[in-house]
Every structure is written in structure tokens, then in C-alpha cells.
Amino acid sequence: MAEAPRRDEVVGNIDALVEKARADGVPVVWVQHSDEELVQGSDEWQLVPELVRAQSEPLVHKSYGDSFEGTDLEDVLADLAVGRLVVAGAESDACIRSTIHGAFTRGYDVTLVGDAHTAGDKSAWGAPPAEQVIAHTNLYWQFQSAPGRTAAVVETKEVAFTG
Asked: Which PANTHER family match (predicted)?
């Protein structure tokens, strides 16, 4: 997150989403990635200090892009009777993209919060600038469709957890 564009805005939006979910009595599930480059327990691996997980909120540790692969996320969601995911975080072009597709193919309705995800600069490897990656992810996800499922992109202020 240190080098991510709009880092403070994105973190602030995620914090607002978490607080709104808590106030509405909606479960908050945290997902934390680790791999050879992002070592579990390292300073870089820690959640940003502005985001504080409540002890009662599940934490899923993952090591693949898709938060469902090799984790107990589906069991956690089933225990909480969750059928719709509101997704925010990092990295837009890796973990976020893999997770929204993974959730959708598993039958979940998936709302991507367009102003609450970000990515680092991977242009050295031929990727577009991070702002374009974020915009493209928001663009194509709003047109995702499948029988019996919904996909949407909304801004933080438009997220409705109830009703």
C-alpha cells in the first residue's frame, strides 16, 4: 500500500465501509495475503495502521490471488450466511480481480467498491499505470453477468448493506 495511488483515500474509504458494515450489523471478513515476497509477520505484511480489525471479525490468510483458493473463506461466509460480497482492498489487478471472479463463479453476488481498491505500479513489467488498471477493473466489472448472480461497481458513499 505504501506506493499505491490514492493510498490515503482508498484506506479512508475502506475504513468508512468497515464502520458502516459494523453499524449495520453486517459481517466484516478480513483477508490477508502472504507469499515469498510478502512474508507473513513482516512489517510490509501488516494491515495498514488506519484499519483495525475487531477480534470478533474473521481473518482469512491466503497465499493465492483468489481469496477462496486454499483457504476457509467459503466456510467462513457460509457460517455467516453471506450471499453477497462487497469487495475492497489491494491489489486491483491481482488479488481483487481474482477474488471477485472467484466469488462470482462460486455463486456469490459481488459488488466492487470502485473507489476503495488500488494497485501498485507494475509498468516495469509491461502493465498499464495503476490508475488505468483500477479504471479498467471498474469498467469491465460493471458489465459482468451470469444467471442468478449480480455484479456491480459502486462508490463508497453508494454502498448499501441493508435494504
From this structure: PEROXYUREIDOACRYLATE/UREIDOACRYLATE AMIDOHYDROLASE-RELATED
